[in-house]
Amino acid sequence: MSGALSLARAAGAPAIRLRGLRKRFGAKRALAGIDLAIEGAQLVGVVGPDGAGKTTLLRALAGLLEVEAEAASVLGHDLRGDVRELKRAVGYVPQVFALNRDLSVIENLRFTARLHRIPRAAFEARAAELLERSALAPFADRPAGALSGGMKQKLAIANALLPDPALLVLDECTAGVDVLARAEILEILDERRAHALVVLATSYVDEAAHCDRLVYLESGRLVATGTPDALREHAAIELYRAWSAAPREAARAARALPWVAAVR
User: Fold this and answer.
1) What is the pTM of this model?
2) Residue 22 within a domain
């Protein structure tokens, strides 16, 4: 089932509907009662300082965590129940490359196609399209472990898009990649948000400004949500970029300042 069709069937109901979403890891409270509704095809950015709960929220949306909530549904699937169908409907890209490094680019895609029971002819056409769009076609036979950081992330995104998911969830997928690869990844997400829901955790200001909507988390709580312009207008947050000959020492000193929320 295509992402466009899945969203169309859910018309009138939010693709993501959370009320009081909570998650603990032992004594640590990772999510502290998130209320959120998202509908339609768009690019949603999840932002906030380190430890805000971004990764936990994204993993919950992908059906990868057991959670508690008054209500919690994604694409019509209750997060508190059986989420096997949800996992098949969501494309998830973690920050750390998780595909098989020993398999080639095309072998990784072929493995995912078998998991989703994609017919061979459909797979060949879809894989060719994704590899071309990701500029990975010349490297189809290269082991995934031999790819650059940016190419690994593009492969991970192509792999997540292979089954044409209704929801694409990406956890800081551009962190640490080169400028060209980051631009190529954002172009892919731009195309995707035209007909499917994309949720992206990011620590880059320019990426956040590129989103249709932002969700700002802090200490496991949803602090604000809205368009980038609306949040920029009302937020009491100032961003600074600095250069130092001793970046680690400078970052450590900046984090110690009481008015600094995050240093990246």
Assistant:
1) 0.83
2) yes
